[in-house]
């Protein structure tokens, strides 16, 4: 999932989690400047890869990554990506902790290092994700069939696995022509590396 010229001299790969507040901060504050100053000018190709971390309490992050991949089937990945980040706090408010995994909802189980389990019903989150599909102009039936089937899960898991092999331990993590940067860094940090790479 990429933006920009395929032959751009610099490639930024971002490993991101839709429920991560630092990922949202990067999207809100730094990404628009990189998009306008570098991607739009043909100097950078930007690649997005999934790295959901439910183990950090991000209970709907995997399903959001699947949803964005389903949106990509209809060539609307970036529009969907933006709406998920825009609605991040609201989506989180829709995830409800429940007492048991028995029930009618879509249950996500989190296990702590001590072995304690917590159960979250994310069916309200999924309903909202389906509404967002309508907002960005997706065919709702096609999108919902894709999301409900779970057929994008392997794709999401492969991205996460590739990230872990490359040393991704949290999000956002970036690789700029292979140079690793972690966290929602300010534009200046990216500019310094980009200018060095573009001058090479």
How is this structure best described in words?
The protein is an alpha+beta fold and 200 residues long. Helices cover 49% and strands 18% of the residues. The protein has helices at residues 21-39, 61-73, 77-86, 88-94, 123-135, 140-149, 153-165, 187-199; strands spanning 2-3, 10-16, 44-50, 96-98, 107-111, 117-121, 173-176, 179-182. The strands form two sheets. The protein has a five-stranded mixed sheet. The chain is globular.
Strand content is: 15-25%
What's the helix-strand series? EEHEHHHEEEHHHEEH
Counting H and I runs of at least 4 residues, what is the number of helices?
A: 8
What is the helical fraction, as a range of percent?
40-55%
Q: Please state the overall shape, judged from the principal axes of the Cα atoms.
A: globular
Average pLDDT works out at: 95
Radius of gyration: 17 Å
In terms of structural class, how would the helical and strand content be classed? alpha+beta
The CA-CA distance between the termini, in Å, is 26 Å
Poorly predicted ranges: none
Biggest β-sheet strands, sense, barrel: 5 strands, mixed
Number of strands: 8
The side-by-side strand order for the widest beta sheet comes to 1-3-2-7-8
């Amino acid at each position: 999932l990429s933006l920009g010229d395929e032959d751009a001299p610099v490639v930024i790969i971002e490993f991101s989690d839709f429920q991560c507040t630092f990922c949202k901060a990067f999207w809100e504050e730094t990404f628009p400047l990189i998009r306008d100053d570098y991607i739009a000018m043909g100097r950078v190709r930007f690649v997005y890869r999934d790295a959901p971390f439910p183990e950090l309490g991000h209970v709907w992050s995997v399903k959001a990554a699947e949803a964005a991949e389903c949106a990509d089937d209809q060539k609307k990945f970036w529009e969907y990506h933006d709406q998920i980040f825009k609605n991040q706090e609201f989506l989180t408010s829709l995830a409800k902790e429940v007492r048991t995994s028995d029930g009618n909802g879509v249950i996500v189980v989190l296990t702590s290092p001590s072995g304690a389990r917590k159960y979250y019903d994310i069916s309200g989150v999924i309903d909202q994700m389906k509404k967002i599909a309508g907002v960005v102009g997706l065919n709702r039936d096609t999108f919902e069939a894709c999301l409900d089937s779970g057929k994008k899960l392997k794709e999401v898991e492969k991205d996460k696995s590739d990230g872990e092999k490359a040393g991704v331990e949290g999000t956002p993590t970036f690789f700029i022509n292979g140079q690793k940067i972690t966290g929602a860094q300010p534009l200046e940090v990216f500019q310094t590396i980009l200018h060095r790479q573009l001058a090479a």
